[in-house]
């Protein structure tokens, strides 16, 4: 397999700088007293130690620009709150290989360093998606052998760079009806891009868990069935695959009722599952008290399903605050929002307590 390794020269100085930055950021966070009692650690926090004893984690996605927000950073960095981090953007193709063979790791390095220092798990996200691709990938007409090499090179190099506990190697391969999404990967390589990417990731890091990540597979249905069939096929063919990421981007009051059954069917295939991008949005804003209570129940239902299914390893929220631009929801689905467990003033919403309840942590 051909690999380009020019990044080795580019990153030689960055660890020192990153460490200095991370220490400075941490000092900033620590110097600021908690805003109110809701952000101070209490025994009923999403206690990492308590969850770890049950081999579960609770985590969040984050973005580099948010790390400069002291009040936000204080919650993110609290070891009792989040035991896992996913960079929402920093590891995507556009960010990591903007030109062929030129790797830019600094953004996600900052988040990886933060995870390492805080003893948090790191999830790699992602290698092969149809979105967030640089022009050199999308503007070229590739032959199948050429594109196969491009996919392998990219996956190998990014998975090797970050020691993630798990990696979303493939992101969003299906349409909602369970048919294959006709991406540039599928149109040129058919389904072969999936084993190609998984094998490349495996060679890059034999220890990380290799996942396929997808939305609208929280409950049973055609998309979840296609995912199960894909996992069966890959396993039968001896392709390395260890997990399915259930994104769980949901809408208040519309959470599937058979999540547990669905997760059980997935783990029965001999893999693990994780809730990788949880948020529960309101289609009409602002929510009233009854709406917030429904959102609490929705968060509880999803978290409880994971906590109760052996083989579901943890829950990650797709950022934790409704603060403008931190959550992707209002930007992507205009008019909707308030999908996160902390409000835009960083106060805990009922949804936060739904997460505690779902994990069975006393309030
Ligand atoms: C989103 C990020 O949150 C945004 O910051 C970015 O602009 C677009 O992507 N499914 C995924 C994530 O797998 O990568 C997406 O993240 C949300 C949907």
**What is the SS-derived class?**
alpha/beta
**End-to-end distance, in Å?**
53 Å
Overall number of domains: 1
Number of strands: 9
CATH fold assignment: TIM Barrel
Total helical segments = 15
**CA-atom Rg in angstroms:** 20 Å
CATH class: Alpha Beta
Can you name the CATH architecture?
Alpha-Beta Barrel
Order of helices and strands: HHHEHEHHEHHEHHEHEEHEHEHH
Query: Main β-sheet: number of strands, strand sense, barrel status?
Result: 8 strands, parallel, barrel
* Contiguous uncertain segments of 5+ residues: 1-43
Task: Going across the biggest sheet, name each strand in turn.
Answer: 1-2-3-4-5-6-8-9
The CATH homologous superfamily name equals: Glycosidases
Percent in strands: 5-15%
How would you characterize the overall build of this protein?
The chain has 363 residues and is of the alpha/beta class. The protein has one domain: TIM Barrel, CATH 3.20.20. 41% of the residues lie in helices and 15% in strands. The protein has 15 helices and nine strands. The chain has helices spanning 7-10, 14-31, 48-53, 70-77, 93-96, 106-117, 135-138, 144-161, 184-189, 193-204, 222-236, 259-267, 289-308, 329-332, 350-359, and strands at 57-62, 84-87, 121-128, 166-171, 209-214, 243-246, 249-251, 272-281, 312-317. An eight-stranded parallel beta barrel has the order 1-2-3-4-5-6-8-9, surrounded by five helices. Strand 8, helix 13 and strand 9 (312-317) form a beta-alpha-beta unit. The radius of gyration is 20 Å and the shape is globular. Mean pLDDT is 89; it is low at 1-43. It binds (3S,4R)-3-hydroxy-2-oxopiperidin-4-yl beta-D-xylopyranoside. The site of (3S,4R)-3-hydroxy-2-oxopiperidin-4-yl beta-D-xylopyranoside has 6 residues, from loops. (3S,4R)-3-hydroxy-2-oxopiperidin-4-yl beta-D-xylopyranoside binds next to loops.
């Amino acid at each position: 397999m051909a690999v380009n390794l020019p990044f080795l020269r580019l990153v030689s100085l960055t660890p020192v700088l990153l460490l200095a930055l991370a220490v400075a950021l941490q000092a900033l966070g620590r110097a600021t007293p908690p805003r109110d009692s809701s952000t101070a650690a209490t025994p009923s926090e999403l206690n990492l130690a308590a969850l770890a004893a049950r081999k579960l984690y609770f985590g969040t996605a984050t973005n580099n620009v948010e790390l400069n927000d002291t009040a936000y950073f204080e919650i993110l960095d609290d070891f009792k709150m989040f035991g896992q981090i996913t960079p929402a953007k920093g590891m995507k193709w556009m960010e990591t290989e903007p030109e062929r063979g030129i790797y830019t790791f600094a953004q996600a390095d900052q988040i990886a360093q933060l995870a390492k220092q805080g003893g948090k798990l790191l999830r790699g996200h992602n290698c092969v998606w149809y979105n967030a691709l640089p022009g050199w990938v999308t503007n070229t007409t590739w032959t199948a052998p050429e594109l196969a090499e491009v996919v392998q090179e990219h996956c190998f190099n990014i998975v090797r760079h970050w020691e993630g506990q798990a990696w979303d190697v493939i992101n969003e391969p299906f349409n909602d009806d369970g048919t294959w999404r006709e991406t540039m990967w599928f149109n040129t390589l058919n389904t072969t891009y999936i084993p190609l990417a998984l094998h490349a990731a495996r060679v890059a890091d034999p220890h990380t868990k290799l996942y396929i990540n997808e939305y609208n597979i929280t409950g049973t249905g055609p998309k979840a069935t296609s995912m199960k069939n894909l996992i069966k096929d890959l396993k039968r063919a001896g392709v390395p695959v260890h997990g399915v990421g259930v994104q769980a981007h949901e809408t208040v009051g519309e959470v599937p009722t058979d999540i547990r059954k669905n997760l059980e069917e997935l783990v029965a295939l001999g893999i693990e599952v994780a809730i990788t991008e949880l948020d529960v949005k309101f289609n009409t804003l602002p929510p009233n008290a009854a709406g917030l209570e429904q959102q609490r129940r929705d968060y509880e239902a999803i978290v409880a399903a994971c906590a109760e299914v052996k083989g579901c390893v943890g829950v990650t929220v797709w950022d934790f605050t409704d603060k403008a631009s931190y959550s992707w929801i209002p930007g992507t689905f205009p008019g909707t929002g308030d999908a996160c467990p902390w409000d835009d003033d960083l106060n805990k919403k009922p949804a936060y307590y739904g997460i505690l309840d779902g994990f069975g942590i006393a309030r």
